Amino acid sequence: MNKIDKFRGCLIGGGAGDALGYVVEFWPEHDIFSKFGKNGITPARLTKGYISDDTQMTLFTAAGLLTATRGGAKSAEDYRDRIGMAYLEWLYTQTASPAERHPAWSTSWLLDVPGLYSRRAPGGTCLSALHSGKFGTVHHPINDSKGCGGVMRVAPIGLFFSDPMQAAQVAAEAAAVTHGHSLGHMPAAALAVIVSDLVYRDDPIYTAVNHALTLVEHLYENDEHLGEFIKLMEDALYLAQRKNVPVLQAIHILGEGWVGEEALAIAVYCAVKYSEDWNAALAASVNHNGDSDSTGAVCGNILGAHLGFTSIPAAYVDRLELSDVILKMAGELYDAAFTSA
Length: 341
Hints:
CATH architecture: Orthogonal Bundle
Structural class: mainly alpha
CATH class: Mainly Alpha
CATH superfamily: ADP-ribosylation/Crystallin J1
Number of strands: 0
Distance between the termini: 19 Å
Helix content: 55-70%
Number of helices: 16
Radius of gyration: 18 Å
């Protein structure tokens, strides 16, 4: 499979999972299955797949990477600062209208996309951290949040970097811009490694996850929460192999996805369990009590990097809001990754 297909698959897949889950975010399971039937929400029940802040911020992460590369960024800190500025551009879309003059410091064509000015339940931590005017870092946190807003937006970093450790370091710093708890940026580091391995090494998802855990153990070797994270991820892999454990029971064991480590664990569980089946993986990732759009987005990122864009059922792509914008960004990111390599 060519790599551009994986770039497109990762970003479109994330958008598809996000859009599916956005419909039922905050819904109790009883309400989901009462309204949509025993299979829960499916693409057939969507007239339009509206993306949430998860995909919006993912696009701005990619935009920040592009600007950083053009500016000659070398270190994780260089990339973090430019990605942080891109997040301020996203914040602008949440507080302004497309008709207003763009900030003088803005660089991204994303500000010319009217559809990105929609407020789709943006995360409170992201908003408050960015409104502070300061960027957090891994070593100088801005708060103690471990919400999933750090991990749900960093898949482009895994796409961009073929070196998995560099991907992990940049993703951790990008998440730490708004999420200061180590469990707010540790899962971001892991997701970036998973995506990088799926794209550049063509590893099976299970193998990529185990490699990510090895690198995270090295990167966070002295962190007091490392053991907690590793155990949860190992539980996700174990449960994905257990045919006798019902899907919802497994997800309840892993959590609800409102915090970073749980969101990644649920996404990994669904992607490993249904590694060749978009419908089953995304259905499992969103039809539960928790943060359905984020768990769906991360699951879609992983599966898309594994299976590629051409594998995604048309029902997801045809209904997806701003699919042309997502594909354009995937293409630009691909071109930049292989130009800078």
